[in-house]
Design a protein that fits this description.
Elements: E1 2-3, H1 32-36, H2 57-60, E2 127-130, E3 135-138, E4 141-142, E5 147-157, E6 162-163, E7 171-186, E8 190-203, E9 211-228, E10 231-251, E11 254-255, E12 260-273, E13 279-289, E14 294-301, E15 304-311, E16 318-319
Antiparallel strand pairs: 1-2, 2-3, 3-5, 4-5, 5-6, 5-7, 7-8, 8-9, 9-10, 10-11, 10-12, 12-13, 13-14, 14-15, 15-16
Length: about 325
């Protein structure tokens, strides 16, 4: 049996910018190149399930000194173009392209049938149920750029019984696994080797459910080598993403902003230009939903921690 599956909310859909802010002065000057590398997620993150906002290779493929790897400075809309005034996500925005739409609110989740987020499926080819894995294993996709993508799905009804295909009326739990490996060339002279994966489960998809609950993990690494202005460089970036107990109520048939759960995100980067000492930076963001209309965000970058808040779904991030 073959099915075609589409998840309406993908990593590329996001609304909180990785906005730059001038008060990231706590990072040493030597680390500025690595701080800039935290603005966009690894290249492969637009192909997995993650709260990071992934875009095209040309947008996300970081190279040292590149002024077009970040967000704009409005703090709420990501257009993939850095104004070039600052070097990193700053305290006014979130790293990795920002926070995906599905992790902050139910607006803009596709056809508005009340199935999303993480729950808009339709028929597709390339996947078949396996009695060995009890999953729908999909054909490997090889992108022209050099990335190999694998994915599989598991469907269960409200009683936890495995289903061979997604049933709009009865399927209550869906697990989605994605992985991406390979090497791609971007910015003419840069080559990136990537390895990323995600494993996400959503519960509460059956007809009549009043909320969705999402748990999942995602991680990835990216190593880039190349030349910029005649100087050879190496960039190593890693990113991790952990969603625990994210509860999204369904009201009037539509999803709203999360009312419970945490999202823990982290990135690290090391940038080495030939003839110079390595530049390193790391950052974590812990987003907590407590049932109110405000999310609490704790940001730690290079040893400095700030407590922040963000009105839901589309307010600006404010840090103490």
């Amino acid at each position: 049996m073959q099915i075609k599956i589409r998840i309406a909310v993908i990593a590329g859909a996001g609304v909180i910018a990785a906005a730059c802010a001038s008060d990231m002065s706590t990072s040493p000057t030597a680390a500025r190149a690595a701080v800039a590398a935290l603005v966009a997620p690894p290249i492969s993150f637009d192909q997995i399930r993650t709260s990071f906002v992934g875009h095209s290779i040309e947008t996300d493929g970081f190279v040292p000194g590149d002024a077009e790897t970040g967000g704009d400075n409005d703090g709420d809309h990501h257009d993939g173009v850095n104004d070039g005034e600052h070097d990193g996500p700053g305290w006014g925005g979130l790293m990795g392209g920002g926070l995906g739409q599905a992790w902050i609110g139910g607006i803009g989740f596709g056809p508005g049938l009340g199935r999303g987020p993480f729950g808009d499926f339709d028929d597709a080819t390339g996947c078949a149920f396996s009695t060995t894995t009890n999953r729908n294993d999909c054909a490997t996709i090889t992108r022209a750029g050099g990335l190999t993508i694998n994915r599989s799905y598991s469907f269960k009804d409200g009683a936890g019984v495995v289903e061979q295909a997604f049933d709009p009326a009865n399927t209550n739990t869906v697990n989605v696994k994605n992985s991406v490996t390979g090497t791609v060339t971007h910015h003419s002279t840069a080559t990136s080797t990537v390895n990323s994966s995600s494993d996400f489960t959503v519960v509460g998809l059956a007809s009549g459910s009043t909320q969705r609950t999402i748990d999942g993990t995602a991680s990835g690494s990216e190593t880039t080598t190349g030349t910029r202005d005649g100087v050879a460089f190496t960039v190593a970036r890693t990113a991790d993403d952990n969603t625990v107990g994210l509860v999204i109520p369904i009201q009037d048939g539509r999803p709203t902003y999360p009312t419970a759960g945490t999202v823990t995100r982290s990135m690290s980067a090391t940038v080495t230009n030939d003839g110079s000492a390595p530049s390193t930076s790391s950052r974590s963001e812990v987003i907590t939903y407590d049932g109110s209309a405000t999310a609490n965000v704790v940001i730690t970058q290079d040893g400095v921690t700030k407590n922040c808040t963000k009105p839901l779904p589309h307010g600006h991030l404010t840090c103490a």
